[in-house]
Design brief:
The protein is mainly alpha-helical. Helices cover 76% and strands 1% of the residues. A two-stranded antiparallel sheet has the order 1-2.
Length: 396
């Protein structure tokens, strides 16, 4: 059998043997570049606030723009990926994601910045369904393998503040064109690979679609991403405005949060291969509550840093599992499932960011993190309604 153009021999174990993982690294690297541009948006928000004097609501509107661009088109793009051959869609998406953000800092008006970030989000939307389908074919039955692909996105988010802070400290938001080259390189590599890759329809097993558990899973993904987007957007402002930290320390807090997310994504895949996907989703939601409480109550600019990492870890434990389980629920529609869980579900959570922005404008960022302590409870309660995917919907 061929998986994403690579012959799968009988020596490849379904539990995630090294050849399976090697096939995942190409897509993980591309995912890292794509989500790097998503991560640059929250990393740059404090600089737009401080340099352009945007309000908290206007700042959260920048996250909203990127979210709208990446969220609304995802289901339609996922359907198109399942029905049509679009071999260079992922490459085009990465290039648009990078170009949109690179030009945003050079724009003069808020409206222009907003539109460019919207286009950047659209590029992200073009990448995820195609890449998610190809990654599922390469991963086989290994949730750990799928977690490598998902962790690529988390790595991109992690690298964004690490690389953004020195650039933005030196040149401000007008230095954003510096971040364009990775998109050009990734688009070139993916476009060349698309000419050689042959997708095999037999790599995806047909089976009954389980729409009810898929709907529940989608809502869980939205709840998880709402918390993730709010923390990523406001953690820097919380460190500066409430904890009295410097811009550099605020960037370090965001990096700790996103770095914990990388670890959580990889840990979630391994946990799912051992204790099951449904239990892993429930565990991640349950752990997020005490970690968020610890982040909110820890005093000073240094003591909350470990909790920032632990919050990222807990929130991302279910990340790859939600993507993989969604494809198990819709076995004949892996692109559509990825477009919803990896794209729409993750992005729609960001649509709630302006609500938290209103709370921050009214009573400051501490209220935002107080409210966030309660949100994961909804994800845990919904997780109790999940069931394992039917055996007919799994790939052999």
């Amino acid at each position: 059998m061929k998986l994403d153009g690579v012959t799968a021999s009988s020596e490849i174990a379904p539990q995630g043997a090294p050849p399976v993982l090697r096939r995942m690294w190409t897509w993980a690297a591309a995912h890292a570049v794509d989500d790097f541009y998503q991560g640059l948006v929250p990393a740059s928000v404090p600089y737009f606030v401080l340099e352009r004097h945007y309000s908290y609501v206007a700042a959260s509107g920048l996250t909203l723009a990127a979210t709208l661009g990446s969220a609304l088109p995802q289901p339609l793009i996922g359907i198109a990926v399942d029905r049509l051959r679009l071999p260079r869609l992922a490459a085009t998406g990465v290039l648009l994601a990078g170009a949109g953000f690179a030009l945003s800092g050079a724009a003069d008006s808020y409206a222009a910045v907003w539109i460019l970030l919207l286009l950047s989000g659209l590029g992200v939307a073009m990448f995820h369904p195609a890449a998610g389908k190809a990654a599922r074919q390469a991963a086989g039955d290994s949730v750990t393998g799928m977690s490598v692909f998902a962790a690529g996105g988390s790595v991109g988010f992690f690298l964004a503040p690490v690389l953004a802070v020195p650039v933005l400290n030196a040149w401000g938001v007008e230095g954003s064109p510096v971040f364009l080259p990775p998109a050009i390189l990734a688009a070139f590599v993916l476009a060349r690979a698309a000419g050689r890759r042959q997708a095999d329809a037999s790599a995806v097993a047909a089976g009954p679609d389980q729409w009810w558990p898929f709907a529940v899973l989608t809502v869980i993904s939205v709840v998880r991403s709402a918390v993730f987007a709010a923390v990523a957007t406001f953690i820097g402002l919380y460190w500066i405005g409430h904890l009295g930290g410097s811009r550099t320390l605020a960037g370090a807090a965001l990096a700790c949060f996103l770095g914990g997310g990388v670890a959580g994504t990889l840990a979630g895949g391994r946990l799912a291969d051992r204790i099951g996907q449904v239990r892993t989703v429930q565990l991640g939601a349950a752990l997020a509550v005490p970690m968020l409480i610890g982040l909110r109550l820890a005093p000073g600019p240094l003591s909350p840093l470990p909790f920032a990492a632990l919050v990222g870890l807990a929130l991302n434990i279910p990340f790859a599992v939600l993507v993989r389980l969604g494809q198990d629920y819709l076995p004949a529609r892996p692109g559509t499932a990825a477009g919803v869980t990896l794209g729409l579900g993750v992005s729609v959570g960001g649509l709630l960011t302006p609500v938290f922005g209103l709370a921050a404008d009214a009573q400051g960022t501490p209220l935002v993190f107080t409210l966030l302590c309660f949100v994961p409870i909804a994800a845990f309660m919904l997780g109790l309604f999940l069931t394992p995917a039917s055996a007919a919907g799994r790939r052999s």
